[in-house]
Amino acid sequence: ADPDICGEKIQRYGLCAHVFCLFFASLLDQQENERVGLQGFLPRDILHAVNWAAQKSCCICGQSGATITCCEKDCDLSFHLPCAKQGGCVTQFI
């Protein structure tokens, strides 16, 4: 994955994730202390998001593991962060 899009890859606690993918994943909440887990995301929450995303197909590429969902009400589309750019999706981190 392009580090300019997904961020650096971090590995800890038997997990591996791209930083920006953690920030944009729909089910993840960051803890106030960024030293906890991976950049403030708890390992158990990351595993839960991964298991949930394994059941979601990306609306751009069709593959499973899409952790980002559309914010529009009644829209159930999901996508991967790299696919968002390719598909013209608008991503916003607040």
UniProtKB/TrEMBL annotation:
Keyword Zinc-finger: yes
Molecular function as annotated in GO: zinc ion binding
Keyword Metal-binding recorded: yes
Official protein name in the record: PHF7 protein
PROSITE patterns found in the cross-reference section: EPHD
Pfam families tied to this protein: zf-HC5HC2H (PF13771)
Record GO cellular component, one term: nucleus
Keywords (A to Z) from UniProt: Metal-binding, Zinc, Zinc-finger
PANTHER family for this protein: PHD FINGER PROTEIN, PHD FINGER PROTEIN 7
Organism: Neopipo cinnamomea
InterPro entries the record matches: EPHD (IPR034732), PHD-type_Zinc_Finger (IPR051188), Znf_RING/FYVE/PHD (IPR013083)
Gene (name only): Phf7_5
Domain PHD-type: residue ranges: 1-94
